[in-house]
Amino acid sequence: MLKSPYIEWSDIVMRIRVIGAGAAGLSFALAATTVGYRDILVFEEHSRVGVPKHCTGLVSETTVQAWGNIARSCIINKFHDYIVRDVERRNTIYLKLLEPVYLLNRVKLEEELADTILSAGGIIKFRRRIRTIHPHHNVLIDHEGNRVEYDIAVVCEGAPRILARNLGLYSKPKNLVGIQQLISLGKSPETVIVYADRRISRNFFGWCVPVSDKMALIGAADHHGSNAYAGVLRILRVLEKEGYQVRNVIEQFGGLIPIDLPRSLIADNVLFFGDAASLVKPLTGGGLYAISRVFRALTNILKHTDPKELSHAFMAEINMLKRKFKLHSVIRSALTALGGYETALKILSAIGVRFIKIEEYDDLLTGMKLGSW
Length: 373
Ligand SMILES: Cc1cc2nc3c(=O)[nH]c(=O)nc-3n(C[C@H](O)[C@H](O)[C@H](O)COP(=O)(O)OP(=O)(O)OC[C@H]3O[C@@H](n4cnc5c(N)ncnc54)[C@H](O)[C@@H]3O)c2cc1C
Prior knowledge:
Layout lengths: L15 E4 L3 H13 L4 E4 L14 E3 H7 L1 H4 L2 E11 L6 E13 L1 H14 L3 E3 L4 E5 L4 E4 L4 E3 L2 E4 L6 H5 L8 E11 L6 E4 L10 E7 L2 E8 L2 H17 L4 E13 L6 E3 L2 E3 L15 H17 L5 H29 L2 H10 L4 E4 L10 E3 L2
Parallel strand pairs: 1-2, 1-10, 2-6, 4-12, 5-18, 10-17
Antiparallel strand pairs: 3-5, 4-5, 7-8, 8-9, 11-14, 11-15, 12-13, 13-14, 16-17, 18-19
Helix pairs in contact: 1-4, 1-7, 2-7, 7-8
The structure holds flavin-adenine dinucleotide (FAD).
């Protein structure tokens, strides 16, 4: 008998339960809803999406394309180059981006994803924290002790990874702490500045991202929150010294950035996605690329795959990302051992590199070309 390439979705009832309504949880739910799954519930511990704020929102063209109009409607700014430098500008290298990098309004992105899910018939249950998962019984227990049965549970709880740790996926998750301030200035820098300087971060880097002509988002990440905060204060002093006239700090926020290798599966019926699975670009800490890429793949795969194969299709995509991130993770560890991003900047400057052409923002090593003026 000839097998139809399409699945009759209306006949299939599969209880998908998503834990966490961040970018990952909402993207998974949206992909499944769009394809035609009908019994999807998203549980979110907060009373709305987008909180607490933590992310900068810098993403590639590829990432924007994956979410399509949802992401395009959230673009605030775009950049064609980055300046990578130390505090005193002794060493400066320009990153020339072949495709623009966008600054997204991150809260709006989650609101748009949530609205699209709701208008397609999906359900988000707010103020419902999932406390425990029982993979052998296909049951979730929420904070009030209510039981929720599932066929597939997708854990998208973000970087703290409490459920992931309880289920043995990670013994002790490794994270950086990222702290940011939205500030108003007399004038803002023309493009993104990345501070590769141990006085701003020993283990990572700091950043200043123009939001509008008189506002910028500054931040730093480090193993310890106090160091990251000290890095942010130093950036404020640097901007002041360089004549940007810091007026005031409008808001401060931050969060954790996973730095261990991705892990995504404990059983066929419990998947981990997003920061919960450490699906983060090791060199930059960006997590939205992986989420958007899996979102796009799932939307395609689910159209043609038996729902029972959902977790396998999902894992195939995750494994591709895992391979890519492993190499980047090794490079980041080597950089850290050699003295961090500052050392890399010094070495490249010493050999005369003044700019680097970046072909793929999401894979800095592919097609990268070093140049001097
Ligand atoms: C300082 C900083 C800057 C960053 N900048 C960038 C950037 O420029 N570009 C980029 O691509 N990425 C960036 N990232 C990373 C990016 O923010 C994350 O990768 C992304 O937000 C991960 O999405 P998520 O849905 O996996 O997790 P989250 O966004 O953390 O969402 C998790 C959700 O799950 C909910 N939740 C948790 N546990 C439970 C539970 N038990 N029950 C119910 N609900 C629960 C939470 O309330 C939350 O809403 C940055 C991160 C930080 C910290």
